[in-house]
Amino acid sequence: MSKKALIIVDHGSKLDQANEMLARIAELIKKKNSPEFEIISYCHMELAEPTIRQAFDDCVSQGAQHIVVHPYFLAPGRHSTQDIPNLVKDAAMKHPGVSYHVTEPLGIQENIIEVILERAGNKN
Q1: Ramachandran quadrant class, 12 (left: phi over 0; alpha: psi -120 to 50; beta: rest)
Q2: Given the residues 11, 44, 70, 79, the one annotated as active site
Q3: Residue-wise pLDDT tens digits, 14-68
Q4: Which residue segments constitute the domains of the chain, with CATH numbers given?
Q5: Is 11 a residue of the active site?
Q6: Stated pTM of the model
Q7: Would strands 39-44 and 66-71 be described as parallel, antiparallel, or unpaired?
């Protein structure tokens, strides 16, 4: 069975605090992860490291044969539909035996509605 990796990617920021949030998300995914993904990683599209190329290379060095890249964005836009897929394609060119795909961004999910209501003060 081929080893699968999951890379979560956000925009990236000049603020360390913002970038560290994605690292924490990756840790939460590792703790909750189903056996589907043996490797969980994160990266930033720009402005900070690790980059998409660095994360992709790292997953391959850990034995990943298929990599799923998930844009940590709410809505589809240029970054999630063009920039990230292009950066992933460039990173994958170095690893011709590794398959990959880029998922849709978070989009409209009931879980997100629950988080918004919780943040807004509705604990129901």
Answers
A1: left
A2: 11
A3: 999 999 999 999 999 999 977 889 999 999 999 999 999 999 999 999 999 999 9
A4: 4-120 (3.40.50.1400)
A5: yes
A6: 0.91
A7: unpaired
